[in-house]
Specification:
The chain is α+β, with helices and mostly antiparallel strands. The protein is built from seven helices and seven strands. Strands 1-2-3-5-4 form a five-stranded mixed beta barrel.
Length: about 220
C-alpha cells in the first residue's frame, strides 16, 4: 500500500513539474510573438486571413477573433521561410535548453485547434467528447470556468499530459450546431488527415465563436 501511495505522489509531482514547464514555455512563446515578430508579418497574415474568411481586404475583429487570429498566427500561419512562428521561435529564439524541451516542442507542434463537445465541467477538468471519434477525454485547466455549460461545443488547443489533455490556448464556444455539422461533412469529403484538416480549416469553423470566460482573467 505504501508503494502505491508513493508512486501516486511521484506521478503527481512529475505531472506538476511538466505542466509548470508547459505554462512557462507557452508564456515565452507568446512574449516572443508579441515582441519580436515583425509587425508587417502580422499585418500580412491578418490580410490573408480576413480575405480568406470573408473575401475582404480588411475588417474590424472582435476580441474572440483577435485571440483566434493570434493562435492561428502563432501555430498555423506559414511565414515566407516556410515555418510557423512557433517553429521559428524554437529554431532561433529559444536559447534556454532543458531536458523537457524536445518532448514539449514536439507536443506543441502537433497540437491543433480542435472541437470538443462538453459532457460536464468538474473543476479543474472538462470531460468532453471528440467530434470525429466520439472518444471521451479529460481536459485539465489551470483556471476556473464560471459558466461553461454541458453539451456546448468548444474549440481549444491541448496537448497530452499523462492520461489527460492539458489546455494550452483560450477556449471558444461554437453556438451554431449547423456549423459543426458542416465541419464534419467537409472533412468527410476531404483527403486530408484529421490533424491536417484542422490546421487548415479550424479557424474557419471557429471564427464566429465566443471566448469562454476564465475566472482568473476577469
Amino acid at each position: 500500500m505504501d508503494n502505491i501511495v508513493y508512486l501516486q505522489a511521484l506521478r503527481e509531482e512529475k505531472e506538476n513539474q511538466l505542466t509548470t514547464f508547459i505554462c512557462d514555455h507557452l508564456k515565452a512563446v507568446q512574449t516572443h510573438v508579441d515582441r519580436h515578430v515583425n509587425i508587417r508579418e502580422k499585418v500580412k497574415a491578418k490580410h490573408i486571413l480576413t480575405k480568406k474568411l470573408w473575401n475582404e481586404k480588411s475588417a474590424v475583429l472582435t476580441l474572440s477573433q483577435e485571440l483566434l487570429f493570434k493562435d492561428w498566427f502563432t501555430f498555423d500561419y506559414l511565414t515566407i521561410k516556410g515555418l510557423t512562428n512557433y517553429q521559428t521561435y524554437i529554431k532561433y529564439g529559444n536559447r534556454m535548453k532543458h531536458p523537457l524541451d524536445s518532448v514539449v516542442h514536439a507536443l506543441f507542434m502537433a497540437s491543433v485547434l480542435e472541437p470538443f463537445k462538453v459532457i460536464k465541467y468538474d473543476k479543474p477538468h472538462i470531460h468532453a467528447k471528440k467530434l470525429l471519434t466520439n472518444e471521451v477525454c479529460t481536459i485539465k485547466l489551470d483556471e476556473g470556468i464560471p459558466d461553461l455549460q454541458d453539451n456546448e461545443w468548444v474549440f481549444l488547443r491541448s496537448i497530452p499530459v499523462f492520461d489527460d489533455l492539458f489546455l494550452i490556448s483560450d477556449m471558444f464556444i461554437q453556438h451554431d450546431n449547423m456549423m459543426m455539422d458542416e465541419l464534419h461533412k467537409h472533412f468527410e469529403k476531404s483527403t486530408d488527415s484529421w490533424r491536417t484538416f484542422l490546421k487548415k480549416y479550424s479557424i474557419k469553423y471557429s471564427w464566429n465563436c465566443t471566448k469562454v470566460k476564465l475566472s482568473s482573467k476577469e
